[in-house]
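Hi C.,

You asked whether I'd gotten around to modeling the 194-residue construct. I have! Everything is below, sequence then structure, no commentary in between.
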Amino acid sequence: MMLYLHGFRSSPQSFKARLLAERMQALGRAHEYQCPQLPPSPAAAIALAQSLLAGRPAGEVVLVGSSLGGYYATWLAERIGCRAVLLNPAVAPPADLEKYVGTTTAWHSGEPFEFKREYIDELRALAVPRITRPERYFLIAATGDEVLDWRDMTAHYAGARQLVIQGGDHGLSGFAEQVDAVLAFCDGAMEKPA
């Protein structure tokens, strides 16, 4: 199973989420892909992800996390022991998201939602100071990310497989070029034993 965790203010309608869904559909594997709408509360987002993963062996699960979803995917991967693909992941979101406390809008729908001050504490509770078993991680980072610093990402995921894209942007607008590498990495986790 591939569980895609989108970023802050994002949704299952993000370019990368839709591209992966379409590719899994084309491969006849749509049933192996899930991308829920995550609630604004980090604790609630983690609880939702855990409910979707419940009862699945770590070897049959892979997480794909974009931006804030990468932060969530890292915490979950450390707890579950599964693989994770991180797409321009947030490394220190409590500091990065402090400015969004209050009412903000969802990127794809324009719908307003409240990002509460207590969510910053929920984010702090999910911090992973250092990853274990770097071989379980695949980082894709763009040097042109206008939101997060790719150098923080590569340092945090030291020892992991890393693809650093020269230029690019936070949304990884060239993601179509990386989908095959992502799926190849994921397939090691999602292939069920015969």
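If it helps when you're writing up: The CA atoms of residues 25 and 43 lie 30 Å apart.

Thanks,
B.
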